Amino acid sequence: MVAYRLYMAPLRVAVIGAGPSGLSAARLLASRPQDFDFEVYERGDNIGGTWMYSEKTGLTENGYPVHSSIYKNLITNLPTDVMEFPDFPFPSDSKKFMHWKEVRDYIFAYADQFNLRKDIQLNTDVKSVKRITTKPVPSEAAHQSPNRPQWLVRTTALQGGGSKEKVFDAVLVCSGHYSVPHYPDIPGQESFNGVHLHSHDYRHPEPYAGKRVLLMGAFQSAFDIMKDLYPHASEVIISLSELDGLCLGELYKKGLLPHNVRTTTFPQAINGSVVTFTDGDTLEPDVIIFCTGYEYSFPFLDASCDVTVSEGKRIQPLFKHMIHSRYHTLMFIGMPFTGLEFPLAYLQVPIALMILDGSLALPSEQDINKETEADYRDRLASGQKPRHAHKYAFPPRWSYTVYCDEIATFAKIDNVMQPKYRSFEVVIAAMLKNMMTYRDYSVSDSHLECHHSP
Ligand code: FAD
């Protein structure tokens, strides 16, 4: 029970999306029925978000862009103990790194365990969220203030059609951010006359048998697709961006990449079939796969929400990477890219609920903006790009542990992520040591080591 309440009736909360973040939100909202009434809207025909593999690429039968970016052979890049929801361990006989089907089944089991499906409206697209600017009716006015507007949410049922509108006291945006491809701006890119696609649309290695494939980007997607592809392709070339986050260049130099895989620098220009790289090297690939990340996109947020996304990667105005700085009843779950969205929601959602129930007061908008801008400026000064505004992969200051500590301290709550720190650090160290073998590592309380590492 909260210390005091700003309102008499349960607050009505709309949750957008039923992937891991939306399901965590549902789980935690459902645990406080006296305080919250909620509905979860999911555009897809099932729960699971990213983990609902789609053989199709492009548009769904309903004419919406396919959401999931995972490919047929995908194995998780994090082990179970780091990935799992804090109150629902993976089955004890699970492998450390799993095929996506096992993650999907785990998510289904989680929803069943906490009886979440009844609160989720599938095949329901949130078309728009509008801030209500009219005065609230007096009976509902107790918790209202300019910082706590209500929201008109319009949804469309994809099966059977029909739109509905409903007023909510708060909206939790859990719509994910690994769905809308980001492309680099390479001069002449449009002239490329081979096959090109984004990793969002990569599904199988077979179509690339015997081909020379250029993978742009040196992070997780590029690496994982390389591992899937190299037994089929004639040659795989990984183009390293300015941040070779996975030390692939080093692995190549040490001869630890497969025989038909090599690295190169970043493309400077594309002219027809020829790609020229920053070191002057040239290549004629049959296929280019852009493993260049994703953009934040919230097409359903009406202009009245006052949310902008700059450079595809900076959501504004956002406090602690989750709270609208001006309208505190609009919050975003799972946006920092730590890659740990399953447990992260267990830290973010309770904070969101504390803001809603009035037990956590926020600083003034001016102070919030000052803090947010200072963080952004410091990031740029340290060499990060504008698109890294919500990225936590730059230790020691911008690491996932720092973020989790910071928001837990801010809200004065237990940090449920803390028990995962050690395992996370071990897996990251193993990953950086040798991406080819890190999934073979083992963790136990008394013994941490990487097998097969150089
Ligand atoms: P999502 O899973 O993206 O779910 C968002 C949901 O919102 C979707 O179901 C979507 O349909 C719905 N939605 C969006 N817009 C609307 C709308 N307007 N109306 C209604 N519904 C809407 N994480 C790990 O922990 N381990 C891994 O190994 C791992 N591997 C990954 C590999 C790849 C290739 C990718 C792309 C991501 C990977 N991730 C991994 C990150 C993964 O995205 C998260 O695990 C997790 O799925 C994020 O959960 P989410 O709920 O925030 O977003």
TrEMBL record:
Enzyme class: oxidoreductase
Any matching Pfam family: FMO-like
The EC number(s) this enzyme carries: 1.-.-.-
Keywords noted in UniProt: FAD, Flavoprotein, Monooxygenase, NADP, Oxidoreductase
Cofactor(s) the record lists: FAD
Entry superkingdom: Eukaryota
Similarity comment text for this entry: Belongs to the FMO family.
Name of the protein this chain belongs to: Flavin-containing monooxygenase
